[in-house]
Design a protein that fits this description.
Layout: H1 3-23, H2 35-42, H3 53-64, H4 86-97, H5 105-126, E1 133-137, H6 140-155, E2 159-163, H7 169-176, E3 184-187, H8 197-209, E4 214-220, H9 232-242, E5 245-249, H10 260-264, E6 274-277, H11 279-282, E7 290-294, H12 299-304, H13 336-346, H14 348-370, E8 376-383, E9 386-391, H15 396-409, E10 415-419, E11 422-428, H16 436-448
Parallel strand pairs: 2-3, 2-4, 4-5, 5-6
Antiparallel strand pairs: 1-7, 6-7, 8-9, 9-11, 10-11
Helix pairs in contact: 4-13, 5-13, 6-7, 8-9, 14-16, 15-16
């Protein structure tokens, strides 16, 4: 492709992205056409001859990229939104355009330095110990798998403890790594949907009495269902007393700790042996980027480092890092460029303000629901950007119907979930572009559906 054509198409792509950002509030929050319609628009025979790049861009933007959940939409309240900042998008584009690799120091010292800096900045914002090390991955699932593999390498096999509110991907990670069924100990939660330290301590004692070997506790800083935060400090005390690895899944919720309000809700976060966050959720990065932090220096390399003969030339001097030795990923792009670009452009203070806005949005939603007790019941109060509620007298089918009606209009994306077998509606309000009117209108439309 000629240079002038590359520039023209690149500028056109920028225009498409900026127009989408400017008009997303007027577009559907979620959209899904039929498999047949999508296959007809995007499929066909394998192209053998050159085609029209402008037409291809139009098709991708108009069809492929329109038909998905738009996690950056101000009224996308389902699951966990992904409101990406434009400065982060610029960092992502630059990395892709330069075909960046961040595997070894010898093959990517610049991108590796950016990742070291970004990981250190994130750890500082979260209040983690100074010696914390980390690595960026695709998201919470692979980041937790990396942490679990490290825990097993450092501590040995044994029983892992978690709750029925633990994200479903984490027990899957454990099974993939070879944890047997009888080594997975799921605990019931307390009335606030949090891990109960007394139950945890009793389970550890009972397992020891049965000849089992307790090894790891998986706590959550912000459950997906309700935003509940496990009592991390009490759990850390139990782990210290029994020499257990403490893993904290903070994929969506731990970024609340960059604010004073959120930090106060998470005492003990810095005592974790490993912590996972998803910056593509509440740190405003485009998909994908997850982060695995380990507070035991050298543990990641002790678990994942390898020394094949064909990598001898990129082995590094002391003080340098091969990120390919910190996770299962070897060929890896630089996910740090977007974090570095956005933190450098906006500053940490603007990130803190944006996270605080998400917390306040959920509190506004709770207060608005409580103004109409004849219609709405608040089931769990606002907790770091999540509130759950029920239509008085409605069952699961009715909640699902109303959520679908609102979502099908495109105005907002809303889902229901189950808490102890009881159906509730749920809003996750972490997009800083969400307005109070967006929340009011969404709740009113759910009531009228």
């Amino acid at each position: 492709m000629e240079a002038e054509e590359m520039r023209r198409l690149g500028y056109r792509m920028v225009d498409l992205v900026v127009e989408n950002a400017l008009n997303r509030h007027a577009s559907p929050a979620i959209q899904a056409d039929t498999p047949e319609a999508l296959a007809q628009a995007l499929g066909g025979p394998l192209p053998e001859a050159p085609g029209d790049a402008d037409a291809a861009l139009d098709t991708l933007a108009r069809v492929a990229l329109a038909n998905m959940q738009h996690g950056d939409h101000p009224r996308y309240f389902a699951r966990v939104p992904g409101p990406a900042s434009f400065a982060a998008v610029l960092g992502e584009w630059l990395g892709t355009g330069f075909n960046t690799i961040a595997t070894s120091w010898g093959g990517g010292s610049g991108p590796s330095t950016v990742e070291l800096v970004a990981v250190r900045w994130l750890a500082e914002m979260l209040g983690l110990p100074e010696a914390t090390e980390g690595v960026l991955l695709s998201g919470g699932s692979l980041a937790s798998l990396t942490a679990f593999a490290t825990a097993r390498a450092e501590m040995g096999p044994g029983t892992a403890y978690f709750t029925d509110q633990t994200h479903s991907s984490l027990p899957r990670d454990l099974r993939l790594l070879g944890w047997a069924a009888d080594e997975l100990h799921m605990l019931p939660v307390d009335a606030g949907y949090r891990m109960d330290p007394a139950r945890l301590a009793a389970a550890i004692q009972a397992d020891r009495a049965r000849g089992r070997t307790p090894r790891m506790v998986i706590a959550t800083a912000g459950t997906t269902n309700t935003g509940a935060i496990d009592p991390l400090d009490e759990i850390a005390e139990i782990c210290a007393a029994h020499d257990l690895w403490l893993h904290v899944d903070g994929a969506y919720g731990a970024p609340a700790a960059i604010t004073a309000q959120g930090r106060a809700l998470m005492p003990g976060l810095a005592r974790a042996d490993s912590l996972v966050i998803d910056p593509h959720k509440w740190l405003f990065q485009p998909y994908d980027v997850g982060a695995c932090f380990v507070t035991r220096p050298g543990a990641l390399e002790r678990t994942f480092a390898m020394n094949p003969e064909y990598l001898r030339d990129v082995k590094t001097a002391p003080g340098t890092v091969n990120f390919g030795d910190r996770s299962p990923e070897l060929s890896r792009r630089s996910r740090a460029l977007k974090l570095w670009m956005s933190l450098t452009t906006y500053g940490a203070g603007r990130f803190r303000a944006a996270v605080a806005r998400g917390i306040a949005n959920a509190e506004f939603a709770e207060n608005y629901l409580r103004q109409n007790p004849a219609r709405w019941q608040v089931v769990t109060p606002a907790q770091i950007g999540v509130v759950t509620f029920a239509l008085v007298g409605a069952d699961a089918a009715e909640h699902a119907r109303r959520a679908k009606v609102v979502s099908d209009t495109g105005y907002a994306a809303v889902t229901s979930t189950l808490l102890n077998g009881v159906s509730v509606l749920r809003l996750c309000t972490i997009n800083p572009l969400t307005t109070e009117d967006d929340i009011r209108q969404t709740i009113d439309r759910l009531g009228a559906a």
